[in-house]
Amino acid sequence: MITRMNPSSFMRISSHIWTQQYHSPNHLFLFRTQTAPYGAPVQTVQNINTNRGKNMNDNWYDPSGWVDASNDSSNPFIENVPENSSYNKHSSLNKKEEDILSNPVSIYNHFKKHIYKQDEYIRNLALFLFNHINGRTSILLATGPPGNGKSFAAEKLQELYPSTIIWDSSTLSKDGWSGSNKIQDILKESLKYKNPIIVLDEFDKMCQPQFSHNTNISLAMQAEFLKLFEGSVIPVKSANGSYNINTQKYSWLLLGSFSNKADELAENNSSSGIGFESLKNEHQPYDQPLTIKDLTDYGMIKEIASRITKICHTEPLTCDDYYYLLTKNRSSLLKEVEKKYGFPLNLSDNRIRSLADECFKNGLGIRSITHKLTCIADEQLFEQFRSSNIHETGENLNDP
Fold it and tell me: Rounded distance, CA 360 to CA 96, Å?
C-alpha cells in the first residue's frame, strides 16, 4: 500500500527543512519535508532500522515523494491516498522565483508590478503567501466592489505559487443537490498539491441567504465549508476509492463584494440636514470597511466569521483609474486585446475616455471594459474582411 505520512508536529533543523520521527511496531521512520520555496514541498522518509551504520544523507532525496511506509493503519500520521494521485506535483521554480518567495517584501514588489493600486490588498496577500509557505496557515477575506482587481490578484498569486486552486463559489452545491460542482470537488482537486492555497471567488454569494421550501440553504453550504476551515480530516470518495484529506495545512483566500451590505451602509450613513443652507452628507458604497458584524448581518455564520484571520479592503476605482488601465498601465487591457487580435484598434482619446466613463458608471468594473474592447475588435475584424472581399471580387456584400 502506498501511504502518505502526515506529521502533526515538526522539529525545525534549518530555514526550510523539518523532520518528524515516526515509530511503528517494527520500524522507525524519519520524515522530512522541504517546505520552501516550492509550491508543493517534497516529502521523503528514511527507514532508520534498515539503514543503521549508513550515512544519513545517502539516498535521502526521493523526487517522487512516495514511500512504502508499512501497513500500520492505526498510526495517526498515515492517511490513505490513491496510488495514481499526483499528490506532490509542482512546477519547478527558477532562481528568480525562489528569491521572490524568500521574503514578503519581494512578494509584494512582484505583485505591485502587475496589480494596479490596492496597496493594502497586495501587502496582505504577500504576507498571506509568505506565511503559508512557512507553515503558518490563515484565512484572508478580501472585500470591495466588483471588477477592481480582487480576482486578478488571485490569478497572479496562482502564477507565483502554482499550488493555488481557484473556485467560483457561486457554482458549488452540496452532495445530493443539483449542480455540477460539489464542495468535495475542491478536495479532490487539492490532492494534486501539497499544502495548497484555496481561493473561493464570489464567496459573498455563498453567504447570502438563499431559500428553498422555506429553508435557508446557504447555512448548509457554509456548514460544509466550516469543516474545511477548521482543519479537519474529511473523507472523500472518488472513482479510485475512498480516502481522507486533512485540511489543517490549507490556507484560504475568500473574495467577495458583499455589495448589498455596502449599499445599505452607504444609505444609512448618508444624512441630510434641515433648512435652506443644509448640506447633504453623501456616502458612497465601500467608503467604510466592512466589519465582522457587517458580514454576519449579511448572512455569514458566526463560526466562519470568527475564523477569518484578517479582512482586507480593496479600493473602488475612479474613471481616471479605468482610463489609466486602458492606456498607460504596463498590462494595458487595450494592448492585450490588440495583441490577441493582431491589429491596433486605433481608438480616439475621446472614445477611450467614454469607455472608461461607462465602466465607472455601470459598476461592473474592469470586466465590462474587456467585454467592450472585444466587441470593438470583432467589429473591426469583420470590416477588414469585408473590405478585403470587396477589393478582391468587386462585390459589395451590402448589395442584394
Answer: 37
